[in-house]
Amino acid sequence: MKKDVATKKRRIRCAAPARRTVVIEEYLKAKHNYKEEIEKAVINSWKSFCRRARDRESLWDGIYRVIKRTNERKKDQNMLKKDGRVLTPEESAQYLAETLFPEDTKKGESREHSDIRSRAEKINNMEHNANYDPLFTHTELTEIVASFNPKKAPGEDGFTADICGHAISANPSIYLTLANKCLTLGYFPARWKKATVIILRKPDREAYDQPKAYRPIGLLPVLGKIMEKMIVKRLNWHLIPRMSERQYGFVPQKGTEDALYTQTKHIREEIGTLVNNRNK
Questions:
Q1: Rounded to two decimals, what is the model's pTM?
Q2: Which InterPro entries match (predicted)?
Q3: Where are the alpha helices (DSSP H) in 55-160?
C-alpha cells in the first residue's frame, strides 16, 4: 500500500490540469486507507507481542522466527533452448543478451523501417550548424542537476546523483564548458552511452528458464544523463507547442490515464446530451 500511495502522489505532479482534481482525490483516499492499515498493523503487532510474552518466548526464539520468514536469495537459473538443451551459465548470459538486445540489422526489416533508417543516416551525415544551438546556461544546468533523485543507482563509474551534484556545484564552469563543447561539435561522449545492464525477474512466472521471463534495466552515468536532460528540455521547448493536444504518448504530464479520462469524459457528456434531448 505504501508503494501505491507514493505512486498516486507522484501522479499529482505528472497529471494534466484536466485530471488533477481526480488524481488528488485518489491520492487522499489511498493515504487515508494506508493510515488506517498502519493503525491496525500496530495494534495487531502489539497483541502478538503480548501473546509471545505470555508464552515466554526467549530472545533467540524471536530471532529464529524472523530469520525463517526472511526470503532466501533466488539462485540464477540456466536458460533452456527450444530444442530442450540446458545452457551453461556463460551460454545463458549470451542467450539473454542476444534475445533482449538483438542486433540492429537490415535483414527482414519492413519498408517503413528501411525508410526511417535512410532518413536517420541522411541526418547523421549532415553538417552540424552551431548557429542554431545557443550555449547551455548556468540556470539550465542548476535546474537539471536539482531534478535528479540521489537514491537512484549510478552507472558504471559509480558516481551517484548527489556526488555529481556536489562536484558540479563546486565549479559549474567546468561541466558547462564540457557540455557546450559537445553541443558545438554535435558530439555525445561514447563513455556516457555505456550502460550497466541489470537483469530483473518478472514477477509471478511459472519458470525462469526463458528470456521472456526477465526484463533489463540500463544504468547510465549520471554525468551523461545531465547533459541528455538539458538537450531534451530544449527539444521539448521547440516541439511540444507544435504537437496536437490529442497527443498523449511521450508528452510531459500526459499518458494513457489522461487519454482514458478524456475519452470517458467525452462519452459521459454525449450521454448527458442525449438524455437531455430525450427529456425535452
A1: 0.68
A2: DNA/RNA_pol_sf, RT_dom
A3: 59-69, 89-100, 111-124, 138-146
- Residue 248 CA to residue 44 CA, distance in Å, equals 45
Gap between the Cα atoms of 57 and 60, Å rounded? 8
Helix or strand run (H / E) with residue 79: none
Q: b/e per residue, 196-207, with b = 16+ CB within 10 A? A: eeeeeeeeeeee
Amino acid at 220: L
Element (H, E) at 74: none
In eight-state DSSP terms, residue 85 is: P
Say what the pLDDT of residue 65 is.
65
pLDDT along the chain (280 residues), means of 10: 81 75 87 90 83 66 65 77 90 91 85 89 72 86 93 91 95 95 90 92 88 92 96 90 85 81 89 85
Helix (H) or strand (E) holding 216: strand 214-219
Domain map (residue ranges) of the chain: 1-62, 132-242, 254-279
| Paired residues of 215 in beta bridges | 200
- Alpha-carbon distance 214 to 98, whole Å? 13
Q: Specify the pLDDT at position 243.
A: 87
